[in-house]
Records
---
Amino acid sequence: MNEEYKGQKWLLHQCCGPCSMWPLYMLRHAGVDVTLFFFNPNVHPSMEWRRRMENASKAAACYEVPLVAHSLCDPHAWRERAEDDTERCRYCYRVRLELTARAANAFGIKYVSTTLLVSPWQDREMLIEEGVRACEPYSIQFVPCDWRDGYRRGQQMAKERGLYRQKYCGCILSLESSDFYESIACEHDTLAFQETLTRCDQSLLVKDGIFDESLG
Ligand code: SF4
């Protein structure tokens, strides 16, 4: 990587844990001072968003880099763009990179990139167009890293560390068109069931608490 980035602060938009492994490895070796920014309102359903967020945070911990997360989860905006295949992805890149650039400006960071650039499944050209467009108003540089040759290695690193590796891009339409739709839907049902159980446990604890107080 270019020597000019050594010691520089970067805000790296983070799409998920596994996709961040290789970029973080490369940036660490280049001496870049990275902060991660998790902002992915496209992810559907919300339990999947939480799962990706948790695993994004595990990847950050592997490299001991700070992580800033934005909690917006707004999958319906993507459903509304169902008819608009390519432009839906442009909207998706735009929303995520515009806020990343805005955050970088607020943090006084002059370099921005995204872990989406590691994926051979993403539209690299469109990502770069949207990254440059998002950063321009703030005079921030969008760095168009090409990490795709490390994609498999990054996925392997994620596997070795026990990170969850998703089987669809993120939005509801990518979920519905996934070859693995049925197994993913089953996983989501299980997660939903576990969440319900946790809520039930909590409400029982609350009831127990009230009961104990009334005895006192
Ligand atoms: S397919 Fe992926 S990049 Fe395209 S809109 Fe859906 S989540 Fe975003």
Note: Residues 42, 78, 88-89, 92, 169-171, 173-174 surround iron/sulfur cluster (CB under 6 Å).
---
Amino acid sequence: MYLALLSGKNIEMAKEEIFSISSGFKETKLDGRVVVFDSRKAPDFSLLGLTHEAGTFLGKNIEEVDFTVFLSQNIQISVLNLDSEQNSLLFSKKIGEFISKKGLKVDFKSRDILRVYLTKGCAYFTKPVFVQDKKEFAKRASPKRKFFMPTSIDSMVARALVNIAGAKKGVTVLDPFCGSGGLLLEAAAVGVEVFGCDIEEKCVKGTIGNLEQFGYLVTAVTSDAMNVKKVFKNKFDCVVADLPFGKSSKILKDKQKLYKEFLYYVPELVKKNGRVVIGCDEEKLDYPKKEFILENKFSIYIHKSMTRHFFVFKAMS
Ligand SMILES: C[S@@+](CC[C@H](N)C(=O)[O-])C[C@H]1O[C@@H](n2cnc3c(N)ncnc32)[C@H](O)[C@@H]1O
């Protein structure tokens, strides 16, 4: 069994992201940001955007912990207090005493770490297998790119969206509203072949430049998203897009009309069983019910006047 410490941005989205890269994900417990789950094979946690830490789950009580999983006799105790009224230092001390009684040694320099998450009513003991490298994501964050767009979504959320869409090595992804290429950048980082289009030429050039800046290739064209089929003849394994939003956009004369037209057009772009992940500022979308199943919907609070809604569709034909 595994335990993941999820980002607090959207717990459901973070869980869905783990599900999308695991085989046979089965949640056994969700406690705030802590999820304990089963998976037939160990997920590659390094692919995830919204998981901060992960480990092998060892139990909820120190007595349950199998210390043979550690390589040495020297154990470092690391406690993260998430929401508990317990004093972390006193808790660590008690764990240390238990460990010593077992004939093991508490060693703050040891690489054998017993990581404990304290929630309101529970303790979760793990052997860590993954700690997210936030600096890697920060390197690709919007302000760090040569071509900057303020509307580009946070790179960890972008990673989660492309994972949920089914991005993995060998698949093709299209973002028909690519802007500065934020979603495509995260898709390329997981080894996907990426394609983009934007109605604004400067965005297309910006996307190409931004992907190049991080060593990735993208095929991107200037086109209305509603004409992109004429440019790219083949269907894609998945489509991800953050649709234009807000009232100020010059392009956006009729947002509702654009959203609807696009949703009725996008089935022509994606292969059967492929996913289409759409971000927008509408809580409800009109979509073709025969062609699509709405599998999921997540909302992320951005700031006081903005919440972004993300819809996950599966193409039936
Ligand atoms: C929210 S931004 C996308 C941001 C992008 N995900 C990023 O990381 O920078 C929406 C983009 O849609 C483009 N756009 C608006 N109408 C369009 C249309 N009809 N066809 C294609 N692109 C369009 C805009 O130029 C803008 O770059």
Note: The pocket of S-adenosylmethionine is lined by residues 149, 151-152, 176-183, 197-200, 203, 224-225, 242, 244, 251 (CB under 6 Å).
---
Amino acid sequence: MMFFLASPPHAFCWGFFAHKQINYDAVFLLPPAMIPFYKLNIDFITEHAVDPDKRRYAIPEEGSRHYIDMDQYGSFPFANLPQHWGDAIQQYSEDSLVAHGIAPWWISSMHLRLKKAFELKNPEAILKLSAEIGHYIADIHVPLHTSSNHNGQKTDQVGIHGFWESRLPELFAQQHYDLINSKALYIEKPLQYIWQRVYESSLASDSVLSLEKNLANSIPSDMRYAFETRNGMVVKQYSSSYATLYHTKLNGMVERRMRSSIFTVASFWYTAWVDAGQPDLQLLGKVKLSSEAQTDQKLLQSAWLGAKIMGRSCSN
Ligand SMILES: [Zn+2]
């Protein structure tokens, strides 16, 4: 029997479980002209939902694409932070922007690349970019991805990041969440739309921290942790009874953010396809990775298995 203290060896944004679930569920919101191709390749879309987190072990620049520290720019409505990258660079240096995270702008650039892949009718690129934009969109729905106190390190709450985005969905999503959504919608202004989701996350981040802090102060500390099974291993982690209390205090927040992630991912896929002129996807078929892409995939996998994360992780 194996024991790990406090956290498993790898901690991921939203956790592997939730990222895969979000991409999987997004497929079913697509219109009839898109859904057969995505359904045929749903394993690809699901499996590759976590590639961007694996890449954080291989490429230093990857880290800042997963978050933005909104508290560095004042408070809502963040009038001092331009939404457009070109304007933001005028106001802050690129180094400074990168240091505090570039997630919304990165999603915008991924959106343009996905549109291009649709225009070229390149099935492998469409699926890879769809899977990966799904990851980044899901990340900005996590409140602590918009706070410099991203793991409660400034408030003696270390571990809260994985608690909120991995432990809670793993415990409650499958049995208790209603993740049914309306169909994907065309997004007129994708960059603005993403910023709205970022603002929502930023507004929620205070509650994520303060609710846990109040709860921690109200019950004995030895009730907070327990040795319980996670992914087939016994680890010391937030106890399920403590998780249930916290989850109740959050009043559906994790479920709402997950549901919004799914809808937004599907809507971005749909919008990129419409903007590319609604190419016919019927003949594209099931995609197998090219040998070049398979090599990249192996490098990603070995970096993830063997190396230390570069830049900010979700667990420290
Ligand atoms: Zn991530």
Note: The pocket of zinc ion is lined by residues 13, 52-53, 66, 135, 139 (CB under 6 Å).
---
Amino acid sequence: MPRPGSSRAILEQGSYRAQTGAPRGTTALAAPGPWSSARNRPIVVGRSRRKRWAGLDASSPRALSVSARIGADLKAQIADGTCPPGSALPSTRALAAELGVSRTTVTAAYDQLIAEGYLETRPGGRTRVAAGLRPDPGPREAAAAPPQRLSAFGRRILAMPPPDDAPAPAIDFRTGDLSGEDFPALAWRRALNAALLRRPARLGYGDPRGLPELRAALQAYLWRARGLRCGLDQIVVVNGSQQGIDLCARLLVDPGDRVVMEEPGYRAARGVFSAAGAAIVPVPVDADGLRTGDLAAIGGARLAYVTPSHQFPLGGVLPAARRQALLDWAEASGATIVEDDYDGEYRFDARPVEALLGLDRTGRVIYVGTISKTLSPQLRLGYLVVPPALGAAFAEAKRLADRQAPGLEQAALARFLAEGGYERHLRQVRRRNAERRAALLAALAESFGPAVRVEGAAAGLHLVAWFPQVPAGREAAMAAAARAAGIGVYPVGPTYHEAANRPDRAGLVLGFAGSGPETIRAGIRRLAAALAAAP
Ligand SMILES: Cc1ncc(COP(=O)(O)O)c(C=O)c1O
């Protein structure tokens, strides 16, 4: 009869006991009991000096260190009651000898479990399972677990239509994607390297509004490229437009507030305001963007979200008279305007139009800019220009959201902007995207002729292809037929807030910045063939 608590006792009690079926020359050790199969893999110890461990595979998540596996098995035995609270463990020397591992390995396993509170030890005493631990009753039936109570915000976002997360098809016309070939990898690496080599003496949190040198570089860029004058304190660097819009909603919108949105409009912005509990007030757009004449009938709106330089998705550019009407309405109704200038850098028939912010004399406009359309949506960098009176609120909201945008990328962008690399890159991508746009327009004309009418191609990186003879109800079937042929196209319907506002003909939103001209041509030919063959 072995002494209680000796390694032999633990082994016989089932903690580490030989099992049959182990490879020759090894001893398989595992704990019995109602373990899950993942836990119940035997540990196999070689009898030779070279130890071998079953399941120890560097490419698998089981690639735990030996001491981690001993620890995991001990935890499992504590959980299933094999090692009850207060029971003594074998000495590290005894268990190491029994398992054929070094004593250091077992000591490391014990130390880790002591640190986690599973084991206790007293000077001169045996290591024991911590008193007061309760055996784990095992995974609870999902159905029996009480549902977590979501906040009103959580309930609102779960009630929204699910995002389209389908894997990308072979040729994808998704808006927002850029071609990987356009990314200026060498220039960006130089900028990142330079930022890395600065090696600050201390690593700490910075100004939540962003690195001062990036804000200064953005200030100069906005003046050069968009004719905008603003103070440094008005610029807040954010993680893409999306965060900028989210901060606007947090700071300016209470549940029940009315928020004017373009109809159709940008779903990701609508999602933010809906999640904040806003009452969305859709205002129709036409070929010139928001129909500002319709605003007069809207009283008490708190905020309006607009894309005046290139309406998303229909592509209209808001003319000067409508810009003035929009600003006048905002002033009269006390509303704030969020101007999303997401792709204002791309204008194919003339110079980029002036930003709405440039006309704002009363501090009502929040300007949202991004590098997602010029450098990469993966960098997650954008910026806000906020009215001076809102600077402190935005700085604090950004600090509470995530402290600050990533410093290294900010420093790289600051350098890229200040040294002229950004604008050199812009000239290149403008040219390439002009070629892609021309390829798309020619391919649509060639494959569909008068069966397609193109809207909104004068600016930006997408257009809308309307199919006047196809009823709107066919949009989803068109997208599905295209996807079956390996082509990603996106119906215009879901960009409408209210189904009743959808036009009766089908339309597809086609982004063209993600692929080269040849791929675009091939994609449109395949699209035409797939639609022609669709039932
Ligand atoms: C209307 C609009 N705003 C903003 C963005 C960019 O968002 P972000 O800067 O968060 O990447 C896009 C991207 O497609 C967009 O379509």
Note: The longest strand covers residues 462-471.
